Q: What sequence folds into this?
């Protein structure tokens, strides 16, 4: 089986972002700081940054993220959104409400011309999300 998962790069706040997403999406969160891999060649002052983090929700969603140490070039993703969609409107509205905390709403979650509901936001970490409730 092949799996496709979003993997988000942060400069230095992956822990904060993943803990926020864990609070919104639930599930289990595994965080591996750079200190757990001392041979990575990072600055020791960045030991607490996240080398790899993975959030796995109870309904099987997997979101991964890491910090970009100062010795590596950081390029924020452009033109990419994390998309949540499904049939459970109440659940998706709750996820929207959680993600919207501190976010910039670019398109409110509302009825869509093609049926169902659709909305877009940039969360407090600058990550673009799309939420779609199937019609």
A:
């Amino acid at each position: 089986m092949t799996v496709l998962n979003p993997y988000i790069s942060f400069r230095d706040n992956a822990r904060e972002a993943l803990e926020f997403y864990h609070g919104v999406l639930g599930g289990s969160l595994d965080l591996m700081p750079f200190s757990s891999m001392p041979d990575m060649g990072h600055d020791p002052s960045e030991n607490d940054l996240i080398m790899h983090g993975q959030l796995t929700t109870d309904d099987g969603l997997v979101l991964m993220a890491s910090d970009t140490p100062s010795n590596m070039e950081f390029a924020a993703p452009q033109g990419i959104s994390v998309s949540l969609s499904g049939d459970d409107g109440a659940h998706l509205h709750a996820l929207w409400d959680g993600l919207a905390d501190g976010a910039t709403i670019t398109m409110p979650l509302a009825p869509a011309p093609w049926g169902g509901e659709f909305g877009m936001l940039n969360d407090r970490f600058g990550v673009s999300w799309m939420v779609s409730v199937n019609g």
